[in-house]
Design goal:
The chain is of the alpha+beta class and 375 residues long. It folds into 3 domains: 7-113, Butyryl-Coa Dehydrogenase, subunit A, domain 1 (Orthogonal Bundle); 119-218, Butyryl-CoA Dehydrogenase, subunit A, domain 2 (Beta Barrel); 223-372, Butyryl-CoA Dehydrogenase, subunit A, domain 3. 51% of the residues lie in helices and 17% in strands. The protein is built from 11 helices and 10 strands. Strands 1, 2, 3, 4, 5, 6, 7 and 8 form an 8-stranded mixed β-sheet that branches. α8 (271-300) packs antiparallel against α9. The longest helix has 37 residues, at 223-259. The mean pLDDT is 94.
Length: 375
């Protein structure tokens, strides 16, 4: 039983933290939904993009655990940059690496690892959110062509993405995925809705969108299950974003509480504040360990639905609680626009919805427990 990082893992985490402090701290909490292109370039130069993708495609040849550690360290300084880092190894790039043809890997993975392109996933629809199986976007295969018709919603980083991993229902009623370039005929970006974190989320329109059949990534009896299995790893990314935000909020609260004096003493000396700090730290540490376990399991075996869902639920709630308590400790100062805690407060809330709501995760956890119990 191992509860400590290896020397290599510690070195990676330390390197990522030092890089973030040097290169990303000055502009942290100013991006307001914009992609930090200059930081993406620096991540590529330092070998942190595509960290868990194979070296033959320009990746780092590392593991999901490596990505999580680097994401945590960078996210504690600049969550926007951490999001770029982890998305380059998880989501569409990872799915292409695990399920795609060699041609798809050669086409899409090297540019992602080099920081030249960004990919996004398109799953939700106006009538399909938590129930992904209810999607109505159709993919019809005819000879060497696949044609997509439908509408996707809540797609992040759509303006910057060069390609999308689009989930669709095929003619045989199986759900699979197709890689769609933005210049494909019949593809267009629709309305952008800006969420409370300041991030635009677009609709995608697929109107007779014709693509070569080789763009089909997953299709067949086990395709939906395979996609859902890989999505378990995506939940580790989601969970660590919350923990990283929570850790930065904790840092802000601790610094403020030890500097701010009221009633002739530091407010950190008041028991009420001490308990807040203690509870926040305990929840974050528990969530971090669950994420580490889930990520490690994804390296050694098939990603576990139970472990990734548990990690996501606890991390989503621990991260939000940490930011909420940090804002309370920082008081009026933390409530002001432009303060890191105010930025984090708006950012962290969305992760309880994205990647499967915490309610849906609890349903999944319960199903797994009824099947297999708790070991």
């Amino acid at each position: 039983m191992q509860f400590t990082l290896t020397e290599t893992q510690r070195d990676l985490k330390e390197f990522a933290a030092e890089l973030a402090a040097e290169a990303f701290a000055d502009r942290a909490f100013t991006w307001a939904g914009d992609l930090p292109f200059e930081n993406r370039d620096r991540l590529a130069d330092e070998g942190l993009l595509g960290l868990a993708l194979p070296e033959r495609y320009g990746g780092g040849g590392g593991t999901v655990v490596d990505v999580i550690l680097a994401q945590e360290a960078v996210g504690r300084v600049c969550p926007d940059t951490a999001h770029v880092l982890s998305r380059s190894s998880m989501g569409p790039p990872r799915v292409i690496d695990k399920l795609g043809s060699e041609a798809l890997k050669q086409r899409y993975l090297p540019p992602v690892c080099a920081g030249e392109t960004t990919m996004s996933v398109a799953i939700s629809e106006p009538g399909a959110g938590s129930d992904a199986g209810a999607m109505t976007t159709r993919a019809s295969v005819d000879g060497d062509t696949v044609t997509l018709d439908g509408e996707k919603r809540w797609v992040g980083k759509a303006e910057e993405a060069s390609a999308f991993l689009v989930w669709a229902r095929f003619d045989d009623d199986d759900v699979g995925a197709v890689v769609v370039d933005t210049d494909a005929p019949g593809f267009s970006l629709g309305e952008a809705r800006v969420n409370m974190a300041g991030h635009p989320q677009h609709d995608l329109h697929l109107d007779g969108c014709e693509l070569p059949r080789e763009q089909v990534l997953a299709h067949g009896d086990e395709s939906f299950r395979a996609l859902l299995t890989e999505f378990n790893v995506e939940r580790c990314h989601n969970a660590m974003m919350c923990v990283a935000c929570g850790l930065r909020a904790f840092d802000e609260a601790m610094a403020y509480a030890t500097d701010r004096e009221q009633f002739s003493q530091q407010i950190s000396e008041f028991q009420g504040i001490e308990w807040k700090l203690a509870d926040v730290a305990t929840r974050l540490e528990a969530a971090r360990l669950l994420i580490y376990r889930a990520a490690d399991s994804a390296v050694r075996a098939e990603p576990s639905r139970l472990e990734t869902s548990m990690a996501k639920v606890l991390a989503n709630e621990a991260g939000q609680k940490a930011v909420d308590e940090a804002l309370q400790i920082c008081g009026a100062r933390g409530y002001q626009q432009g303060h890191p805690v105010e930025y984090l407060y708006r950012w962290v809330r969305g992760w309880k919805i994205a990647g499967g709501t915490v309610e849906v995760q609890r349903n999944g956890i319960a199903r797994e427990l009824k099947k297999h119990g708790l070991g």
